[in-house]
Amino acid sequence: MIEFQMPNLGADMEAGTLIEWKKKPGDTVQRGDIIAEVETQKGLIEIEVFDEGTIGELLIQEGTKVPVGTIMALIHPSAAAMETKKGKATSEKPIALQPIEEKTTVLSIKASPLARRIAAENHLDLSQVKGTGENGVITKDDVDLALTTQKEQLPKVEKFPPDDAKTLAQIEAVRTAIAAAMSKSNREIPHYYLEKKLDMAKATDWLIAKNKEKSVQERLLPVVLLIKATARALTDFPELNAVWQNGLQLKNEIHIGFVVSLRNGGIIVPAIHNANIKSLDEIMAALNDIIPRARALKLRSSELSDATITVTNIGDGGADMIFGVIYPPQVAIIGFGNISEQPFAEKGMLGIRTSIFVTLAGDHRATDGLTGSRFLVALNNHLQNPEAL
Amino acid sequence: MNEEEIKQIVFQLLKKIAPDTEPSTLKPDENIRETLNIDSFDSLQFIVALNEKTGIEIPEEDYGKIATLQALTAYIKNKKP
């Protein structure tokens, strides 16, 4: 039997609220299927399963907040999954199944999953709602009615309309998550910093020519080249594509965590999976997919938990350099500044070149400055050959 | 398209990209991206959306010609008289 647990979606996450099960007992699941939706500090996250099998039992009820690691469901493994699981030690300690918030009132209330979700999103107490569905089940209409009534009863002069109140709560939650992760990072990770100025003339010229051949919809942004060059360079420096958990653990796949700024403040760092083997078009497609979802706080669990390194990009018109704070348990963060014209000396000549400042913050427990320096040189070499990216 | 129609389309598309802002309060000579805090990704989304809505394809070398509301309106008017 496979135990499906509340996943850890980042160093800052302690618990999540199950909003809705997307599967029921008897359903077959495959790796990557969405099994549930969980409300976290980073929004409503679609949780994926990592095993194949049949759903046995759902142990947690919708509306319950449980700590990371809590067993939420049992999955009967498929025959193929059993084969791969064989021989693996199962000495992991079972984690106590203990909701961290008193949810008994909520649990005894009968409500449709949609009604629960709308209520949760609007911070509506379901025990105050009268159900008109079969056997007194609270329906979406009941919740909508309760919310309308609640709005009408609120004083007319509100500081923020309800939508803004929700946004403010989300901003606050994201802020708390960032505060927790970054404090942990500065407390535990001895950072070292490196900086290098890169000539971007070839890369930008190549990109301009390439974009001329493309339709508006297919155009690439310069950051796509930066992500791909980073991923390529990492293949030669696996010790930077790793996590520090009881020592250095290298990661086989390169999943670039890409920092997305939220419009109302805060950041979210979804992963671009296997960036080293994606084409430039595929990386652009990944950005087109994840940036809007990240801004809407609607990501999948794998996108929040899989990143093996972080890339942060200031973008045009902004600061020239950014010195990042590593997102634990990762061991490095790469920062790209604004692409700008800079004086550039080469072979005794001084000229003006389109340039970018790249920085690396590395975890000194995991690597030394020499590794980081070599990595930046490799990154530069890749950007000087954009056609090969 | 007349100027008013163009502005309405521009405001509508900008609002979609930057929902927390009020594009209709943009002054004619204000830098759109700076005022509405639009990054290069959102800027490209706007150009794609404008293309889908009006058929106008703005080449990259013309990005500098559409920085303000006044300039953008004139640019679109020129392409779609």
The Rg value of chain A, from CA coordinates, equals 24 Å
Mean pLDDT of chain A: 87
Q: How much of the sequence of chain A is in beta strands? A: 25-35%
Total DSSP helices of chain A? 10
Q: What gyration radius of chain B follows from the Cα positions, in whole Å? A: 11 Å
Number of E-type strands of chain A: 19
- Helical fraction of chain A equals 25-40%
Query: How many domains of chain B?
Result: 1
According to CATH, the homologous superfamily of the largest domain in chain A is Chloramphenicol acetyltransferase-like domain
Low-confidence stretches of chain B: none
For this structure, the CATH topology of chain B is Non-ribosomal Peptide Synthetase Peptidyl Carrier Protein, Chain A
What fold name goes in the CATH topology slot of the largest domain in chain A?
A: Chloramphenicol Acetyltransferase
**Class computed from helices, strands and strand pairing of chain B:** mainly alpha
Shape of chain A: elongated
Q: Would you kindly provide a written description of the structure presented here, covering whatever features stand out?
A:
The complex is a heterodimer of chains A (389) and B (81). By secondary structure, chain A is an alpha+beta fold. Chain A has three domains: 2-85, Beta Barrel (OB fold (Dihydrolipoamide Acetyltransferase, E2P)), CATH 2.40.50.100; 109-154, E3-binding domain (Dihydrolipoamide Transferase, Irregular), CATH 4.10.320.10; 172-388, Chloramphenicol Acetyltransferase. Helix content of chain A is 32%, strand content 25%. In chain A, strands 9, 12, 15, 16, 17, 18 and 19 form a seven-stranded mixed sheet that branches. A four-stranded antiparallel sheet of chain A has the order 1-8-6-3. In chain A, helix 3 packs parallel to helix 4, helix 7 crosses helix 8 and helix 7 (222-234) crosses helix 10 (369-383). Chain B has a single domain (3-79), classed as ACP-like (Non-ribosomal Peptide Synthetase Peptidyl Carrier Protein, Chain A). Chain A binds chain B through residues 208, 211-212, 215-217, 219, 221-223, 261, 263-264, 287, 291, 315-317, and chain B through 18-20, 33-34, 37, 39-41, 44, 47-48, 51, 57-61.
